[in-house]
Structures are given as C-alpha cells and as structure tokens.
Amino acid sequence: MEVFGNRFYSISDKGLVREKNEDCCKAGMTPNGFLCVLCDGMGGHAGGETASRMAVEKIWNFWQATDYAQVREAMGECLRYANSCVWESARGIPGLEGMGTTVCMALLRGKELWYAHVGDSRIYVYEPEAGLCLLTKDHSMVQGMVDQGLLSEAEARVHPDRNRLVKVLGGKEDVEPDVCASPFEMENGMSLLVCSDGLSSYVPEEAIGQVLAGNGTVHDKCSELVALANQAGGEDNVTVQLLAYGSAEAGSEQPLPALARPRKRRLAIKIIGLLALIFALLCLTL
C-alpha cells in the first residue's frame, strides 16, 4: 500500500510457515490526522483473522466519524470500543471462541504523534542522529520479567514464553490500553515504523535501524525489513508500516495534507447561518 507518493508504504506478508495471514493493517487520512492501525490476530480456526480485521475496521470507522478535540481520551475510548466488539463476537459466534488481537495505533497531527497499543506489536521512531527509539512496551510475560530484572533483553528474545501475552484486545470483557501521556514531536528527517512481532521478534533492532538509515525509498525499506524477517525463518506473519516525515534531502518539512474541517464545525456553521436567516425574515415581517 502506498499513499502520499513515496512518503508512506506498508507490507503485510504471511511469512514462510503460516498458512494464513492473521495480521491486518490500514493507513490514511482521517478528519483527525494521518492514522496508522496495525493488528496481529490470534485464536481458533478463523479467530485470528477475524479479530484483527474486525479491530482495524472498528478503529478506522471510529476515527472517520468525527473530529475529536481530546485526542488522548479518544484513543482510550476507541480501543475500549474495539475490545468490546471483539469480545462480544468471540462469545457469540461459534468457532471464534478465544480469539483476540494486538493493536498499535499511531495518529499524526502536524508534528504531533499520538499513539496507543495493546499487546506486543510495536511503534518505533527513527531519528538519524539518535537512532531507533521504541515508543511502546510489550504486554508480554517476558517483558514483565525484564522489568523485574529477572531477564535481560537478549534473554527475553529467545525465551520460550516470549510470545505469551498478558493483555490483548478481546481477551477480556474490559481492557485498559496504554495511551501516550503526551504526543511525541516529529522532526524533519524522522521515520515512523509500526510493526507486528513477526519483525521485532526475529530481526534485531540494530538491523532494523540500519535499514531505516539507508538511502532507499520507503517501499525499498519495507521490502528489506520483510525479507530480513523471512531470512530469519519466516515463522510468523510480518507486517510493517513506514512513514518518512518530511524530506531530509530538501532540508525543509513537507507537512501531510491539512486536516479536513471537522464535521461538527461544519454543521454548527450551517445551523448558525440558518438561524440568522430565520431572524432576518422575522424582522422583515414585524
């Protein structure tokens, strides 16, 4: 998928082992800004595929519905709503019991990058001087052990329980997503990477950073990241979304297309105009 010329690209690949691709992603402009959504489904005969696609659809429709003044609160509300949809479907549709999905959601409004997640899909920012920066923290058993000092990052990467998650969309009736307290400020030349664990669990962050530091297009870099995951065994589906913010070569920021005027604001303007017309007509009749 390519939008905005050579500034954004995404690839979702089933890998070399899995029969189906249970990842799902979508990206594009909404009334709230440029939105990236990525989900990695799990559970049942068709549950993983269903959960990831349902979550992406519900999240996408949520952000298309209207412009939200309080972005952080809207992000939490959005993921709780998506969780309820997946949870209810898992309970009510035969064959979908136990399904769930991870989710990463990144919303770019000008320079402000708002983000939220559940599970072990990840959001990174690459900055040419500072390198690769992980914005999210996995909701996994091994991440908890790392936080407690029981495992090193290197040990966590090869731990047999590294794929056991402690929080997913649809796993329970209620979920509390991790939402950023404040937006990350993007700068010219930075890159945004959203990926499933099919990349982050098999390709070291150093190698990911080297790819993003290269001179290729976003298409080239996405293709290279997927190729690295498959070269490492391709045991999982792998999905990457990559956005190049601005133009380092041009030395000047190239903003994303302006946000659409909020629908609520358009409606308010129409109502005010109608009331003014009615008032004028009443004055003429007096």
Taking the alpha carbons of the first and last residues, their distance comes to 62 Å
Biggest beta sheet attributes = 7 strands, antiparallel
Mean pLDDT: 88
Name the overall outline: globular
Number of helices: 8
Rg estimate, integer Å: 21 Å
CATH structural fold name: Phosphatase 2c, domain 1
Helix content: 25-40%
CATH class designation? Alpha Beta
Supply the helix-strand structural class.
Answer: alpha+beta
Low-confidence stretches are 248-255, 257-270
Q: Give me the CATH superfamily.
A: PPM-type phosphatase domain
Level-2 CATH architecture: 4-Layer Sandwich
- Care to count the β-strands? 13
Element layout with pairings:
Elements: E1 2-3, E2 8-13, E3 23-30, E4 33-42, H1 47-65, H2 71-92, E5 100-101, E6 103-109, E7 112-118, E8 122-127, E9 131-134, H3 141-147, H4 153-158, E10 178-179, E11 184-185, E12 191-195, H5 197-200, H6 205-213, H7 218-231, E13 238-244, H8 263-285
Antiparallel strand pairs: 1-2, 2-13, 3-4, 4-5, 4-6, 6-7, 7-10, 7-11, 8-9, 8-12, 12-13
Helix pairs in contact: 1-2
Question: What report would you give on this structure?
Answer:
Strands 3, 4, 5, 6, 7, 10 and 11 form a 7-stranded antiparallel sheet that branches. A 6-stranded antiparallel sheet has the order 1-2-13-12-8-9. By secondary structure, it is of the alpha+beta class. The protein is built from 8 helices and 13 strands. The termini are far apart. Residues 7-245 form the PPM-type phosphatase domain. It comes from Candidatus Pullibacteroides excrementavium.
